[in-house]
């Protein structure tokens, strides 16, 4: 694609010094070039109708983010280029800032750049490539992209713009040892009037606050307004929360767009520079987690063309919270639950599960598992060789339930939702091909203590989850009188240790030095490591913490650390 030489203000007859800028915060689908383009063209038309001079989209908007190994297909890049050409054709009378991949013409290095484009009057006016390519947590950009070697600004309608892509504004003043360059420092000798950043910044419950801190730090260092456009929506397990923002030169957040939804807002640059108006979104942890999971469910089903979900409802808090979130995301007509009591199930567990289903208005079936359990024990009697009851018989019950749920899933096309929490997944407190089965793990990144907080949040305006499901001691009910505390420490002790190890990456002695019992710490950490094989075989986990099980955590199955 031919790039027009730098656009100068003298080329625009209006020579506007007052500029109106629109931020378009959109929910993209990876590889849906037609759908992504349609959304952007609609936003371009809306921005034009509001007399905007410039509309700003997100990182890799043409392809959706993260495209991963689709980037290795030449046809995929061709389709991205075609989308860019159609956006260029729509730029008559309005500037469009948009992220898209660019082919690297130099044989040496990676085949592509991750770029931000300025389109105007049916021309590609300017292209700036991304410099800082993250390769941590969920990111693996250096696998595909070559970093930029040059950094320049562009003049548009009397204002000099510094265009950057996502991570490029995070290394403010070379403060992150991971990188050796600060792109904005490179651009400042050209004296930009404002910064524009196109982003695909993933959600975790801390990230929105951290992100605003980074934006403030940029404005404090460079003294110019910042327009930050983030994407929203879910891509399998990764949630993008939106929260696009505009900051005035004094560092105040002039506006922050909504979380978890699409939006278009327009701003007069002079008003932003003048400042005096401030609006930020609330950042309550549990509210954010609740809303993020609902978006994750909606987009997982919607983007795959699915409608209906099924899950096992035990009467406990984990399956109860999962059922509520699924119902709020998909609608009660699309959620089906199955109660599968055994000889070890308490009567109130069935009653609690029925009460929840009735509160939610969802279909429930009761399928007792005592008969198939007895049958399996009979079939396996000889090979069990008279050994006493142990975890084997517990797992048989869990796998019978998994078989029933998968039969309903197969027969009726309902996607099985996994109801295990992060605490259980961490220490292996779950049965492969049983209660760990499912197409999507809904609360697998929510520690048990936060599951209780979610339940309280759900019930804040009246009882939805029966109080008994919240108050009773947690139990898998796979043997007489069983409680989680028989095998695990109390969750208010377990969860902080897990957090220090998983999120903070503390070693055993560092955790012990925090005041925790040495024997307990070493036991818990061994449980986490030795159960890695289970997590490799479970469903994608909706990510809500800074370190979720899944694509962002790559721990060997075979290893000796803490073994």
Give a written overview of the molecule.
Strand 10 (232-235) and strand 11 form a beta hairpin. The protein is an alpha/beta fold. It is 36% helix and 17% strand. The model is unreliable at 4-16 (pLDDT under 50). The chain has two domains: 20-280, 4-Layer Sandwich (Nitrilase/N-carbamoyl-D-aminoacid amidohydrolase); 288-488 and 530-535, 3-Layer(aba) Sandwich (Rossmann fold). It is built from 17 helices and 19 strands.
Characteristic key phrases:
six-stranded mixed beta sheet, 563 residues, 2 domains, Nitrilase/N-carbamoyl-D-aminoacid amidohydrolase, Rossmann fold, 17% strand, single chain
Total individual domains: 2
Summed up, the helix count is 17
Amount of helix? 25-40%
Which CATH class of the largest domain?
Alpha Beta
Strand content: 15-25%
Task: Please state how the strands of the largest beta sheet are arranged side by side.
Answer: 5-4-3-2-1-14
- Structural class based on helices, strands and sheet pairing: alpha/beta
Q: How many individual β-strands?
A: 19
Radius of gyration: 26 Å
Largest sheet, strands/sense/barrel: 6 strands, mixed
> Uncertain segments of ≥5 residues (pLDDT<50)?
4-16
For the record, what is the CATH homologous superfamily label of the largest domain? Carbon-nitrogen hydrolase
Shape: elongated
The first-to-last residue Cα distance is 55 Å
Reported by name, the CATH topology of the largest domain is Nitrilase/N-carbamoyl-D-aminoacid amidohydrolase
């Amino acid at each position: 694609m031919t790039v027009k030489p730098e656009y100068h203000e003298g080329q625009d007859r209006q020579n506007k010094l007052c500029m109106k800028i629109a931020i378009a915060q959109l929910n993209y689908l990876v590889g849906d070039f037609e759908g992504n383009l349609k959304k952007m063209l609609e936003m371009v038309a809306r921005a034009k109708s509001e007399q905007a001079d410039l509309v700003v989209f997100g990182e890799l908007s043409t392809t959706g983010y993260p495209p991963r190994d689709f980037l290795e297909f030449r046809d995929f890049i061709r389709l991205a280029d075609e989308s860019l050409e159609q956006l260029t054709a729509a730029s008559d009378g309005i500037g469009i800032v948009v992220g898209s991949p660019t082919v690297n013409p130099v044989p040496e290095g990676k085949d592509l750049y991750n770029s931000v484009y300025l389109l105007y009057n049916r021309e590609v006016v300017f292209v700036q490539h991304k410099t800082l390519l993250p390769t941590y947590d969920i990111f693996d950009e250096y696998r595909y992209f070559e970093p930029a070697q040059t950094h320049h600004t562009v003049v548009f309608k009397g204002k000099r713009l510094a265009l950057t892509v996502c991570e490029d504004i995070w290394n403010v003043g070379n403060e992150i040892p991971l990188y050796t360059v600060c792109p904005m420092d490179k651009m400042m000798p050209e004296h930009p009037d404002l910064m524009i950043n196109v982003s695909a910044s993933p959600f975790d419950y801390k990230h929105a606050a951290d992100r605003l801190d980074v934006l403030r730090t940029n404005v404090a260092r460079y003294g110019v307004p910042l327009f930050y456009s983030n994407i929203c929506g879910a891509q399998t397990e990764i949630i993008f929360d939106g929260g696009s923002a505009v900051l005035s030169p004094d560092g105040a957040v002039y506006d922050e767009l909504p979380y978890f939804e699409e939006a278009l807002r327009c701003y007069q640059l002079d008003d932003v520079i003048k400042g005096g108006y401030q609006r930020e979104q609330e950042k309550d942890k549990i509210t954010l987690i609740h809303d993020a999971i609902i978006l994750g469910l909606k987009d997982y089903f919607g983007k795959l063309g699915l409608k209906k979900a099924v899950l096992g409802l035990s009467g406990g808090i984990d399956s109860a919270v999962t059922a509520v979130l699924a119902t709020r995301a998909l609608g009660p007509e699309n959620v089906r639950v199955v109660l599968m009591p055994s000889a070890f199930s308490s009567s109130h567990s069935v009653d609690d599960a029925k009460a929840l289903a009735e509160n939610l208005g969802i279909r429930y079936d009761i399928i007792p598992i005592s008969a198939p359990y007895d049958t399996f024990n009979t079939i396996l009697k000889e090979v069990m060789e008279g050994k006493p009851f142990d975890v084997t018989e517990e797992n048989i019950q869990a796998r019978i339930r998994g078989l029933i749920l998968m039969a309903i899933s197969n027969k009726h096309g309902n996607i099985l939702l996994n109801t295990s929490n992060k605490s259980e997944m961490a220490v292996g407190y779950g049965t492969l091909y049983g209660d760990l089965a499912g197409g999507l793990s809904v609360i697998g990144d929510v520690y048990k203590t936060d599951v209780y907080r979610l339940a309280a949040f759900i019930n804040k305006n009246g009882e939805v989850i029966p109080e008994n499901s919240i108050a009773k001691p947690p139990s898998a009910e796979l043997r007489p009188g069983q409680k989680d505390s028989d095998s695990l420490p109390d969750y208010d002790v377990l969860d902080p240790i897990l957090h220090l190890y998983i999120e903070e990456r503390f070693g055993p002695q560092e955790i012990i030095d925090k005041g925790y019992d040495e024997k307990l710490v070493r036991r818990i950490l061994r449980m986490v490591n030795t159960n890695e094989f289970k997590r490799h075989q479970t469903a994608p986990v909706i990510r809500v913490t800074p370190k979720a099980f899944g694509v962002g955590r790559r721990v060997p199955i075979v290893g000796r650390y803490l073994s």
